[in-house]
Amino acid sequence: MSDASLWTALADPHRRVIVGLLLERPRPVGEIADACGLSQPSTSKHLKVLREAGLVRVRQDAQRRVYALDPAPIAELDAWLAPYRKLWNDSLDALGRRLDETAATAATRGESSDEDNRAPDSKD
Amino acid sequence: MSDASLWTALADPHRRVIVGLLLERPRPVGEIADACGLSQPSTSKHLKVLREAGLVRVRQDAQRRVYALDPAPIAELDAWLAPYRKLWNDSLDALGRRLDETAATAATRGESSDEDNRAPDSKD
DNA sequence: ACCATGTATGCCTTGACTGGCATATAACTG
DNA sequence: CAGTTATATGCCAGTCAAGGCATACATGGT
């Protein structure tokens, strides 16, 4: 039931930044604090929240504690919004169809400007 | 960047419930309040938050206000966690591969290695 | 116009969260 | 063992969000 804590953990902007940093690579606390412009104690507290949400794991390296991202809870998030993704894909579909019709009516208008907003999912 | 309001909006359990309800179908405020076990005023406030986060839209039907889900911001969420999804897919892949190997080798009792990165003294 | 229904807003209290500072704790170094 | 580095924790104050209640606002019906 890390559900609640998961959302709460990610609700904080600083913590999202931290998670972003850890996405690039594992980092020790000091580095994170520095990158976030936060004090070390605050950073430690945020990391504690993330840890309790299961979002990060710690590895001890001498006196340093290197935090790394744990992707599992993110999967949970993804699972949560799966139903909504369907809905939004439908919307895009409808939009696409409408555009398609328009394009058909307007004949060739050479428009491929749309960025790929499709679900990047490769699994189902 | 995902709107801060989006995360804040979804950080609240009641609001997630509301969003879930609206996923099924659009509903008037009273119905939502009833389903959530919240007072009508509280519900209205939550809906306001969701509205300002762009998550819901209102349609006026007589004195009723029928709220419906707007899937667009959810797409934003999805976009945010896209990079993480990659990571977690890799993890699953690696896990699958590891299990596969283990099954293949079968003889070695699990090479425990260091998959337990928990802090040894995590106390509260 | 009056009243009923449905919803939004304002006020207030309470509780949670955040950040900083000082300090305790743990681990390495000489 | 003392000293230094790296991190965690406790305490405090400021902020903010959530829920309840009363009430204002809007729409429809008679």
Describe it.
The structure is a homodimer of 124-residue chains. The first copy, chain A, has 124 residues and is mostly helical. In chain A, strands 1-3-2 form a 3-stranded antiparallel sheet. In chain A, a hairpin with a 2-residue loop joins strand 2 and strand 3. The C terminus of chain A is likely disordered. At the A-B interface, helix 1, helix 2, strand 2, strand 3 and helix 5 of A face helix 1, helix 2 and helix 5 of B. Chain B binds a DNA duplex (30 and 30 nucleotides) through helix 4. Chains A, B: This is Metalloregulator ArsR/SmtB family transcription factor. Chains A, B: It holds the Pfam family HTH_20.
